[in-house]
Amino acid sequence: MSFLIDEGRNIQHLLMGNEAIVRGALEAGVNVAAGYPGTPSSEIIETLSKVARDRNLYVEWSTNEKVAVEVAAAASFAGLRSLCVMKQNGVNVASDFLLHLASSGTRGGMVLVTCDDPGALSSVNEGESRLFAQILEIPLLEPGDFQEAKDIIPWAFALSEKIRNVVMVRSVTRLSHGSGNVRFGSLPGTSAQAEFVCHGPLLDPETGPIISMILAAPELQHGPQQEKLKKAAGIFETCPFNTYQGPDEPELLIVTASICSLYSREAVRILGLEDRVGILKLAATWPLPERLVKKHLAAAKRILFVEEVVPTLEDHVKVIAAEAAGEIGAKTFYGKKSGHLPSVGELNPDLVLDALARIFPAAAGTRPAASPGGVTDIPQRFTPARGMTFCPGCPHRASYWSIHNALALDGRGGFVCGDIGCYVMGTLPAGFSTVKTLHCMGSGSGVASGFGKLRSFGMDQPVVAVCGDSTFFHAAMPALANAIHQRSPFTMILLDNRGTAMTGFQPHPGSPTNVLGDEAPALDMEKICRSMGAKVEISDPFDLVKTREKLNRLLEYGEGAKVLILRQACALSPEKRGQRKYEVSVDAERCRGENCGCSRLCTRIFGCPGLVWDREKEVSRIDEMICAGCGVCADICPAGAIVRKEVAR
Q1: The pTM is what?
Q2: Hey, what domains does the chain have and what are their CATH numbers?
């Protein structure tokens, strides 16, 4: 049994932030949870799935984030408590339905957890979700530490039921993936009864139909929606997660939220400014609790905003300060707009220290130097540069090798439109710089479809799109449907590595099981593409010759949309991990090294981490500790120096 369903009250466990969110949802009595995998949010649904049977929960990985919100909303409409989980990019996908859901309102408590990624540590951008709360006109809460990550979830569910609307809770990478001690509360019972009451009067929120807008009468729903937000603002004035620490009349007031509150506390402590600097940590960040904010603004003349990423708090608090200027007086503001803190990337205690040192120059001298032997003292020669690359045995490296060579052989300046997954590294040397456009999930195929229709303007370059199996179901199917209907002559390459590999092998509609491990019907991508009207070929990306030949044939077949499915399981997938098909070695006598004439193709160009250049012997060798035994490198060595031997089973 998971410790996350421990019944003991007031016991403590060391929890990852995402685990704390899960425990909070369990203590809130959540009944339904849905999401789409995306770092740093993925562990929430994964962890809930492990206790689903014990706690009578329905948990699913949905096809995409919009569908996940719709599934969670259905539970709310039927009077249950539901949780929807995604990363910041997913809110873009879900926003269509969310805009309507915020208008129609909810019944059972519904909480949307979004996990943002400042610094884009595992994302193609660091776009944040806070702005959506303002667009959607729904409340936003931001826990500041691991205990709050648990405690704020039941509070958010209660708030949702008070205002009859969805409530957003925002985490960030360092909270979701950091760990801290969390004290547990009690767990409720697991019985629940769902019923959708929908036969009452049209405008009755409790018994009538749930619709997002009355035609030609937006005031009948938009007005009440804004009243819900005002009600939330009133509740936020006494939100127990808004805290202040410091003197009654600080020389400087730090206004902060989320994990940045920990950075602020550490920086103030290090500089010994506890008696001079106050910290207003806001958990209720939209709409802001105006009376609380004005109270603390009135007590200080200088204000520093510490937040990630864009100056959202800064802008909103400045509006309050401007409107209350006659009451609280003029203020001096520091933050992103003053240049005291960066407007991109993650924050950390050092950045806050730098900002405070500029505001309190005399205190800067108390800042301790880096400790001997610390990270800053490590000579650069001990930390060689390691570029981003595919794992040993990754089928994507082989796929891009064939794609690059096929386009070069075709000779018409063809290019690849990319998509979201491990294969984003197709933009880098790891993927031979093959990918030339990269935006959001599904956009590779949509953009390629558009390029394909430019023949009437003289464009004759072959257009290829790469797309993963999970992304195909998430967002690329509509793009393929568009291309087929519009007769756009592009080639979609489906990189089928048997799961949502980038985020931890979560199942998708093409998988034979669901998140609970139960058998589920697997949708066949080949049959789907054929039934839609595409010409389809299948190949093993590890077979470089056949893959390149099939792709060249598809490129020459100029009519309509074509699909090449490259099917090979990820080297780190449960079905392949630790299993080698080949024992691979380098015949040092045959390896010509720098004299080969291939520009050291294996180690410098192909670049599998399992291939190493031996500087002393001036030959390539296999790192047996990390080689996955795929054997592909044997096919790319022009001298035949790389030897593979099939492993006996």
Answers
A1: 0.88
A2: 3-236 (3.40.50.970), 243-366 (3.40.50.920), 395-567 (3.40.50.970), 582-646 (3.30.70.20)
